[in-house]
Design brief:
Length: 333
Amino acid sequence: MGSHCHAFLLQRRHRHRPDGRPLLRNPHRAAAVKTLRDIGEDALIDRLTRLVPRDPDPAAGPGDDCAVIDPGPVSAELQLLKTDAMVAGVHFLPDTPPRAVGWKAAARVVSDFAAMGGKPGRFLVTLALPPETSVSWAEELYRGIGDCLAAFGAVLAGGETSRVPPGSAAVISIAATGSVRREHLALRSTACPGQTLLVTGTLGGSLAGKHLNFTPRAKEAYWLVSEFKPTAMMDLSDGLAKDLPRLAVASGCGCVLDHAALPLSPGCTAAQALNDGEDFELLLAIELERVPGLLAAWATAFPSLPLTAIGHLVPAGSGETLTGGWDHFSKLG
């Protein structure tokens, strides 16, 4: 290569002007570059989904626990679509028993179907594993997935396997279909100010292992939509402090939380109940006048599982501001 070529490459590498003066970076332009840590998960989803065509049906698409597909008026049921992913080191530790990992991977999806008032159907499982993964680990993972599918009446329909570079984190991704009767469909976006907020079970304790052995509230959700249709419902995966504002905003409301009423898991503080995440309990809204009847009927139907009123919805722009909970990006160091 000639000397002129070398000079050209050096000039490009050090970003000089044609007259030899260094080309300085614009500090304002550099400061304007945003990262995922800067904007967080919810803002990222909002930005990305604006870039692609979206289903015009307001009950479908991003923003709820599942996507909803209407097959037409001849069908008494709506179709639910869900995808979910888990990554080693983020959702489970490398030494977590693989059967527990498999249960959690499938149960997270079942929990989302339950939050919509629906039932799971067919599952597609994608595994991306480093080549040093033992065969027995993969087999135990699938046994855990199978345990969950069998427990909730779902089946495996297919999937995909791929590799990641040696030493990389394992990735488990599940896509699934489910169904819900039209009259049972529960959304996040249909509550109103003045309605009471309730939560099933207890909150906090995921870091102590609850996130690996939880039972999706599928039976309880089906009972709710059949007997006392909530005005809105979702499952708690990122912590009450993160998920309650999502329901309130989706419904065009604010919220007021009765912190003293929070049902705490044994050994947990109120801060843990708000922020730990992965409770996989149901958060629901219902009209104030229906609360006494709901609580009485619930106590008969599910005597060992509490249902607790924890606050109420208020008009948008009022109420309290909750911060915390889990965000995949803002929590990074």
